[in-house]
């Protein structure tokens, strides 16, 4: 590791190095699982559940924003649902 042996980083050598490969996929998976669970429980009581692929990411943001009031979602719950619904929207990621 050439970068780590440089003098610039020597003073921060006691700081722990996050391991993305282990941590982030695990958190993302659990966030997506939560988003799915919240979507099913909070969004399926008034109408049938819409399939994720029905809307683009921006459309889901608008729809979920409108429905968040009806479903009494917290901002965090709304974000988890949007992440779940738009996870596979590679054609329109924004
Ligand atoms: C309290 C009842 C209620 C809950 C809870 C609810 N919805 Fe709805 N939803 C409606 C009604 C009524 C409509 C149709 C009329 C409208 O748009 O207000 C609708 C319409 C929709 C539509 C279609 C809009 C369109 O333009 O055709 C989507 C997508 C949707 N809801 C998603 C959601 C999501 C996501 C949630 C959870 C965050 C949710 N709904 C929770 C009552 C609800």
Percent of residues in β-strands: under 5%
Q: Count the strands?
A: 0
Number of helices: 3
Distance between the termini: 36 Å
Radius of gyration of CA atoms, rounded to a whole number: 19 Å
Let me know the average pLDDT.
Answer: 83
Return residue spans where pLDDT drops below 50 for at least 5 consecutive residues: none
Major sheet description: none
Describe this structure in words.
By secondary structure, the protein is mainly α. It has a domain at 24-86. It contains 3 helices and no strands. Helix 2 runs antiparallel to helix 3. It is elongated. It starts with 19 loop residues before the first helix and ends in an 8-residue tail after the last helix.
In short:
This protein is an all-alpha fold. The protein has a domain of 63 residues. It contains three helices and no strands.
Keywords:
94 residues; mainly alpha; 0% strand; binds heme C
Write the layout of secondary structure elements.
Elements: H1 20-43, H2 57-71, H3 75-86
Helix pairs in contact: 1-3, 2-3
The structure holds heme C (HEC).
Residues 42-43, 45-47, 50, 63-64, 67-68, 70-71, 73, 81 line the site of heme C.
């Amino acid at each position: 590791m050439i970068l780590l042996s440089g003098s610039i980083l020597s003073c921060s050598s006691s700081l722990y190095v996050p391991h993305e490969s282990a941590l982030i996929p695990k958190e993302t998976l659990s966030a997506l699982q939560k988003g799915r669970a919240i979507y099913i429980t909070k969004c399926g009581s008034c109408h049938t559940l819409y399939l994720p692929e029905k809307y683009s990411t921006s459309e889901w943001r608008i729809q979920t924003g409108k429905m968040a009031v009806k479903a009494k979602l917290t901002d965090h719950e709304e974000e988890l649902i949007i992440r779940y619904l738009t996870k596979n929207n590679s054609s329109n990621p924004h």
